[in-house]
Amino acid sequence: MEIHILSIFPEMFASVLDESILGRALTRGLLQVHPHNLRNFTEDRHRVTDDIPYGGGPGMVMKPEPMVAGIRAIQERFGPSYVILLSPQGDVLCQDGVKGLARMERLLLICGRYSGVDARVTHYIDAELSIGDYVLTGGEIPAMVLVDAVARMIPQVLGDAQSAVEDSWFDSLLQGPVYTRPVEFEGLCVPDVLRSGNHAAVAKWRRQQALLTTWQRRPELLQGASLSVEDRAIIQDFEGA
Ligand SMILES: C[S@@+](CC[C@H](N)C(=O)[O-])C[C@H]1O[C@@H](n2cnc3c(N)ncnc32)[C@H](O)[C@@H]1O
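Above: inputs. Below: predicted complex with S-adenosylmethionine.
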């Protein structure tokens, strides 16, 4: 899959894209990420991308012309893409949304700055997405969050394909506790079952713990989870305890 990013700070992405799982996915050609400098799509000598707001008020507003010229130029050169404006007013990104985006061939992410983007740009986008109910200074970090979340849903990006399936949110459940060595740390022990070598017992314990963690921390998620009869019995036990 290909992800394009339109930003006035395209160099911000280098450190995130060079490292770890994302870096390896790029090297292996499982994912391509192309940050584009919004200023390349301006037509004036000073390469201006923002202007004062109509009606007055604080802060600058990102101009529509470079944004729309950038969207058109990137699509003409690379092909059609699903265009996403990162915005605190958008639909909040969730794991199901991430899975849907990971199935797309090409995404184009638009990063705002200052007081936001001229409202007319929304006529040229397919979706407006937020990464949470708070405001950041720019769309670059939200774009990185989206790229990271989408990348790990692409087959083969994670070394152990199973690990995404057991992650929190994959199946509307939170993950249960995980442990590594040592067996005992300051009197706190790893549960025996995890050291038993009995794979069926470990899988059963992990499922119970995922259900327990979700029931304790985000019980509303259980409504949307696909639960077996056994799962439901386990939850009834929690409720009865
Ligand atoms: C300071 S914010 C603008 C906020 C805008 N004045 C408002 O109240 O909605 C600048 C840019 O950061 C990005 N941004 C900030 N918070 C975000 C969030 N929670 N999710 C996605 N993008 C966000 C958007 O691209 C936005 O245009």
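The beta strands are 2-7, 32-37, 50-51, 61-62, 82-92, 106-110, 127-130, 184-185, 188-189.
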